[in-house]
Amino acid sequence: MTGPGKRPGPPARLSRESIAAAALASGDLESLSMRELATRLGVSHSALYRWVPGREGVIDLISETLIERIVPTDQPTPDNWRAWLGRLSWAAHDEFLATPGYATRISRPHRHTRGFTKMRDAVLTAFRVGGADDEMAEQSWYVFGTTLVTWLGAQEQQLLGDAPLRFDLFLDSLLRGLPTRETPEFGTRPRSTTP
To answer: Which SUPFAM superfamilies match (predicted)?
Structure first.
């Protein structure tokens, strides 16, 4: 019971976890509506909006849930930081592609959520442990995060051709190419050969 002037809170049967779980179980995030999600949860449309402001809020909850699953619980070390990033990448591959529509959605430009901030911080730590200074760690995070998410989005949309996609080859190339120090051999802009 509420007192005078107090608004009732969200229904007790709803939680951030239950909303994320119902959305993940929906089968396709691209077509999931707030009304459908409310029905799955057995609550009114307005009750759901007390917990999340809309579809973007639901996607944020899903991101937080998936990132919790993919970031390894152990810390990277100077000896294993690339292997640690490999484990994170394989977990992202499995979790993101098991959620239809998710990899496609996050491969588009979007604002970062708390979940992605957690992943970013963990990856930055791995690069720093591997010997990168702060600037190089930021650059490597950007290359790593953008490339991984874009590749997974393209795989989900089957934009990479008809041949079987080898995530192991992609990931090996990505992780071998991520430097912890400046190595601009192939990244240096070529000199113009025109007079």
So the answer is: Homeodomain-like, Tetracyclin repressor-like, C-terminal domain
